[in-house]
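Q: I'm writing a short explainer about Phosphodiesterase for a general audience and would like to include a description of its predicted shape. Could you first generate the structure from this sequence?
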Amino acid sequence: MQLQLPKKTYVHKINTAVKVRKWQQNPAALKIMEKIEDWDFDVFGMANLCGNYMLAVVFCSISERRGLLQHFGLNIDTVCNFWIQVAQEYKKNPYHNHMHGVDVLTNTNYYLKSKIFEGLAELDILACLVSAACHDVGHPGNNNPFEINLESELAVRYNDISVLENMHAAKTWEILKRQGCDFLEGHCLSLHFQKTQE
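A: Of course. Here's the predicted structure. Afterward I'll give you a sentence or two in plain language.
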């Protein structure tokens, strides 16, 4: 009898960081990215241009402007792999899709510039940005009462308590733990996030 190992999810063989860097240097993308710090950032224009790379391109651009990648010494390849996987896990429904994740990410970044958030630690900023972009990952396109009334697998798994919210958080951690996606691995950040989760 042969031992059956669980299937692992592997990231693409293509170097995603190279593709993300190319999009960051694309003239049309650069024009849109001029407003990445503004309220009226053109999410739809960026989506039409970059497709599933948009989440990685926008997150990396915001993080570089804020100095987060450098501050934490994050591996750009792993960061990009994570965001490509997140984008792929967003379902293609009319509202709760990866464009919505980018919209909330850029709006959160905009609000984090407010006076009330002055002095916020880099770790807290990173947590806010990651949470914003992942807050609806895997969303099926309906709401908690629907899941609960249907007695869906998700509702049962999360005991009818914040069903979708728990699923989004769990899906984010699941992606983070995939091979080549754990940008927290080997950093003191990993321990901090684990303590926060408890």
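A: For your explainer, you could say: DSSP finds twelve helices and no strands in the chain.
Q: Perfect, that's easy to follow.
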